Amino acid sequence: MFWDRIQEHLNLKLRRKKHRPQRTNHLKVFNMQGIFSFPACLFTLSCFLGSVAFAEVGLKVQNCLHIGESAFKRIPEYFTGHEFTGRKIYCRSNPRDRTGYYFVIKINDSSLNINSDCYWIVDWVPPRDPNPKTQRIPLMEENIQGREVFVGLTGEDWKDPLLKPLAWRISLVSKKGVTLGQRQSFLWSK
Predict the structure, then answer these.
(1) Where are the alpha helices (DSSP H) in 54-122?
(2) Are 140 and 116 in contact (CB under 8 A)?
(3) Which DSSP helix (H) or strand (E) runs through 64?
(4) Rounded to whole angstroms, how far apart are CA atoms 186 and 168?
(5) What pLDDT is stored for residue 19 in this prediction?
(6) For residue 13, what pLDDT is reported?
(7) DSSP 92-144
(8) Do residues 157 and 135 lie in contact, with contact meaning Cβ atoms separated by under 8 Å?
(9) Do residues 123 and 73 lie in contact, with contact meaning Cβ atoms separated by under 8 Å?
(10) How do residues 39-52 score in pLDDT, each as one tens digit?
């Protein structure tokens, strides 16, 4: 008796579906794909070519801080005697000195070819001197997309661990002098 009711209920639903009017697909009635296909292709192509022609490297400054020599020591360094970088890239104004003020930068993927001929330009205003200073720091590795880069003012360029720059601007520049990417502090624009 219970199963009979369920079967009767299902048969009733099936009969109702047969008598429903068919819905029309409005996209088939108003088919305008042929009209818009050529302009859509032109628009897509111009967006792609424009993004390649005016591409810029995405730089994201994640942190600015003073890092001491001991913070760079890793266990493999005790065994090999060489600095272990892992997936990080270190670019220093004085490569022999590790202690200094660092900008931790994340490089977003870019269509531009960034190679070891490129370099960083760091402009900053020291806290005790109103005149901006500029430092050119070489890029030591080629494959930097998607990785963290520590750009450091080390050695004589940054002596005091307690000081921070009042304002700064950091640029990634190609061998030809073209700026590939740039970030700056809020105060630098003022």
Answers:
(1) 75-80
(2) yes
(3) strand 59-67
(4) 9
(5) 57
(6) 60
(7) ESSTT---EEEEEEEE---SS---TT-EEEEEEE-TT-SS-EEEEEE---S--
(8) yes
(9) no
(10) 554 455 454 444 44
Structure confidence at residue 49 (pLDDT)? 43
Strand ordering across the sheet containing 119-125: 133-138, 119-125, 167-173, 179-184
CA 189-184-164 angle, 5° bins: 100
Kindly list the structural domains of the chain, giving each domain's residue range(s) and its CATH number in brackets, ordered by start: 2-53 (no CATH), 59-189 (2.60.40)
Which pLDDT score, from 0 to 100, does residue 141 have? 82
Question: Along the chain (190 residues), what's the average pLDDT of each consecutive run of 10 residues?
Answer: 69 60 53 52 47 60 90 89 87 92 86 80 91 92 84 91 93 90 89
Cα angle 185, 101, 153 (rounded to 5 degrees) comes to 95
Which tokens sit at 83?
């600095």
CA 116 vs. chain centroid, Å, equals 19
